[in-house]
Amino acid sequence: MTSPPEPKSEPRTEHDEFREYCRAWLRDNRPPPAPVRLPQHPIETMTRAQLDYLQAWQRRCYDAGLVGADYPVEYGGRGHKGFQRIANEEMNRARTPFLVNMVGLGMAAPTIYHHAQEELKRELLPPLLSGEQIWCQGFSEPGSGSDLASVQASLTPDPSAPGDYLLNGHKVWTSLAHFAQWMILLVRTSREHKHKGLSYYVVPVEGHRGVTVRPLIKMTGEAGFNEVIFEDTPVKDAWRLGATGEGWSVAMTTLLHERGAGPLVTPAGGVGSEGLAHNVRGLVTLAREQRRNGRPAAEDPQLRARIAALAIRERGMLENAKRARSGALVEHPMRLPLQVKLASTELAQDLAAAALEVEGPAASLYLSDERAPVGGQWALAYMNSFGATIAAGTSEIQRNILGERVLGLPKS
Amino acid sequence: MSRPNYGFDDDCALFRDSARKFLSTHAGLDGLRRATALDPEPTRMPTAWPSEDAWQAAHELGFVAAAVPEAQGGLQLPRAALVALAEELGKHAFPSATESTLSVALLARRALEEHADSAAAAALFERLGEGARATLAVCNADGDWEHESGVRHTLAGQQRTLSGSAHFVQDAGQSEWFVVRSQGPSGVELLLVPGSASGLRRQRDGIVDLTREQGTLHFDGVVVSDSGVLLGGDALLTAAMPDVWLLLAADMVGASEWLLQTTVEYAKVRTQFDRAIGSFQGVKHPLVNAMMAIDRAKSLVYAAADALDQGADDALLLAHMAKAQAAEAAAFTSSRAVQLHGGIGFTWESDVHFFFKRNKHSELLFGDAAYHHARIAALLLDT
Ligand SMILES: Cc1cc2nc3c(=O)[nH]c(=O)nc-3n(C[C@H](O)[C@H](O)[C@H](O)COP(=O)(O)OP(=O)(O)OC[C@H]3O[C@@H](n4cnc5c(N)ncnc54)[C@H](O)[C@@H]3O)c2cc1C
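Structure tokens for the assembled complex are given below, as produced in the milestone run.
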């Protein structure tokens, strides 16, 4: 899309100036090409070489004021409300590499900001925003997925450190734990109540006593998530966010932001694997290049209708985000924000499925075959899309939430 | 560049408020129920005629003036206000010639922008200012406005003599003016024809939708002089179609929202198996899908309205998207509304059928979803 012309008559606002600054900075500071293949999303970062490259990039963006722009200065931010959204748009536009500390930026930071003690905020937020310290999320367990409030990992008093605790339990699907210095943790502190028996802590991971991180392999063959076992792991009470027994309501702040519906804009932008435009434009390019029945796939009437329908969903999402910012044209303040996660992940899945059909039998070729269309990235994207419709509350759970919180229907 | 709130400013909000107030007092479903009480016999012509009083009030509230340029005595509000009005009309299933007349006003506005001396457009605005209703009579018997015209004319000097028929003319019975698409010796022309023209016969259509009125116009020697020509022909009609689609799309957004909210309320109070039916995911999840389809349509409608105001490059694309998405949202929401109400939803007694029928009518008029998908694909893939 071409850049919109700046209106001439109106004075430039500080937002216009910041946008111009971002654009110029991203133009002049493009990172060198990655020395290794980058994954499609931050949560599939597997090797130290990938991490080093991505961490260095986040650091530069942070130093330039493109990460954490909305956070107060005392927590390592720039204290400019409304700037992060602009920086995100410009990073997406410039197609620079994504920000690797995704769990930190999108989930840990807003939760720490809203619920941690002052001292903890000053200690944890700056190295999180700069990407120096990588964060992971220890919510899910083998027996607790959609029914998150049933978590069993628990704290018991530490006999050798009065007032502090020992942690025992088993977390699973923990993205980025293999590189993480810190984890946000939902843990049981009482067995008497389900929700009211939960508390929320931040705990160190790397090098911390009694922590074992074991990588799990995804269906794509990639790694990126892990299981994390805690055996008598020491936890300081000073690491608690919110009151004991209030963990569930603190976790709501995390989940709301994880699903793109929280009040703080998550610093996020840029792309993964070089060469894949995982959008309608990428699909259109593919349809022009691939042939079926002796003609460009772009001439196939069924595919044309399908691409049109996907284009409507993509543009509709973009316009929903704009309309959500206009008070006068929305019925319910959470109605559009709570749709973001569901709409975007299902669209990505359907886009990738359509791309595989456009590729036809060549969609059988994977990353290992250099003749694969677009390097086999669409096949990878299709599989990865299921991670997104499962993680952060499955699509079924999202529909429950929308039905209950927005439409006001009774609980299922 | 799109404006904040898609151009929906304080004036638009005031305009919408006054429309809401008017509709909440004049457009109760009681009236529709009373008016249609005798209609169930499907072989009888429907009787739901919009009241003259209601039209007069709508005129005084500036429903049509909102689209008329200031130089022609109108208010010329942003298009966001016009689609907001159509949304409210849909939400109340309000029978009136408002959307037809707005379509014609917007077409005439374009005619005047292209040909500042267009006498026909100026005359039309004068009539509209006096409270006249107008509508497009541009479709052939296939419902097609782009190929062969159902109306033809011969030319002798300044005089055109019309014969043939225009089909699927909205509000044909109430309108005082028609914009007729007619094929002549030197190409297609858009002609302004008064309802009182001699040689014009209006035939009422027996339609499913009880909240609308539609007819067929038969021309037998109707005479139109040069002063009745809206300069621009098919190019003008093509340029004006996005407005027609947007008004229909906005109407569907409003009607679908009514269906959604009404079904949600029913799902909260109706119990089966000792639970509210809204707690079943087989009921809840389709309602969420309907909401998302409606929201997408609504966002696209306002985005397209703003893009048209601004003359943006993607205005046409957005208008196609808005009509296609609104049609899909309408079809899905209507079908789920009847289904999820159970037996009561299948009755004449429930109000659901008013909106169900209105949506189906809007969905298929001036290009269904498949039509607009094909146009979208052409814009994305062939350019
Ligand atoms: C790629 C990826 C990354 C992840 N990263 C993290 C992470 O970093 N940290 C973390 O804590 N967790 C993470 N997760 C875990 C994720 O949050 C859970 O997988 C998710 O909440 C679903 O839980 P589950 O896998 O136990 O499935 P289950 O809850 O067992 O669900 C199985 C199926 O049943 C359906 N279902 C369950 N309950 C209902 C209901 N009430 N109504 C309708 N359908 C229902 C689900 O929708 C699903 O289809 C990740 C998952 C993936 C796939």
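The domain at 134-233 of chain B is CATH 2.40.110.10 (Butyryl-CoA Dehydrogenase, subunit A; domain 2). Chain B has three domains: 4-129, 134-233, 234-382. Further analysis is deferred to the final report.
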